[in-house]
Design a protein that fits this description.
By secondary structure, the chain is α+β, with helices and mostly antiparallel strands. The chain folds into two domains: 112 residues, Acyl-CoA dehydrogenase/oxidase, N-terminal domain (Butyryl-Coa Dehydrogenase, subunit A, domain 1, Orthogonal Bundle), CATH 1.10.540; 93 residues, Butyryl-CoA Dehydrogenase, subunit A, domain 2. It has six helices and ten strands; from the N terminus they run ααααααββββββββββ. A hairpin with a 2-residue loop joins β2 and β3. The longest helix is centred in the first third of the chain and has 30 residues. The chain is globular, with a radius of gyration of 18 Å.
């Protein structure tokens, strides 16, 4: 490994440990009361933690996956909930847009996500099909230049707090998983509603039982 990378990772680890000691630990009681840590997210964004593996040209830190895993590990030692929020936001709320999004989508969403100005979420799981992408009930039907999504999702981490959702829906039901398309849905989209929170023992993960479109 390049010595500069080792030094970079060591500095990042120190920064995160200091942030955890000064900010995260004192916020844990309010998080345990199901209060989403918006202020922590803003501070993490200012430290570059919300977009560690996102390329610099898209507003991220441009660091490697080892650095990203280090961040999740250090944060999760103090707060598994915050670690989950970060990992969902980055791994499945931001990176799919970086990798598969159009240039316009990257310009519109990624910088805000990588800098913590917006929170990302990932919506695949449904009540009847679980996380089987080939059996989704949510449908997406083309309407002119738009798509109308109809259905519901469940167990969506960051739901209600997220401003950007990566939502999976069936556009060609006869093709199974090959007929599934991922859509970027803004959190303020008309018709998007979020149900009551679901709490797991030992981990306030900020999931909701049902998210409807």
């Amino acid at each position: 490994m390049d010595l500069r990378v080792k030094e970079q990772d060591a500095l990042l680890k120190q920064t995160i440990q200091r942030f955890v000691d000064q900010e995260v630990r004192r916020a844990i009681p309010s998080m345990e009361e199901d209060q989403f840590p918006f202020e922590l997210i803003k501070k993490m964004g200012s430290l570059g933690l919300m977009g560690i593996p996102v390329p610099e040209k898209h507003g991220g830190a441009g660091m490697g996956m080892t650095s990203y895993i280090t961040a999740i590990h250090e944060i999760s030692k103090a707060s598994p909930s915050l670690g989950v929020i970060l990992s969902v936001h980055t791994s499945v709320g931001t990176l799919p847009i970086v990798k598969f999004g159009t240039d316009d989508q990257k310009e519109r969403y990624v910088s805000d996500l990588a800098q913590g100005n917006k929170i990302g979420a990932f919506a695949l799981t449904e009540e009847s099909s679980g996380s089987d992408a080939g059996a989704l009930k949510m449908k997406a039907v083309r309407d002119g230049d738009d798509y109308v999504l109809t259905g519901s999702k469940m167990f969506i981490t960051n739901a209600g707090a997220a401003e950007v959702y990566v939502v999976f829906a069936s556009t060609a039901p006869d093709r199974g998983s090959r007929g599934v398309t991922a859509f970027i849905v803004d959190g303020n989209t008309p018709g998007l509603t979020v149900g009551k929170k679901r709490r797991e023992n030992g981990n306030a993960r900020y999931e909701h039982e049902r998210t409807n479109l």
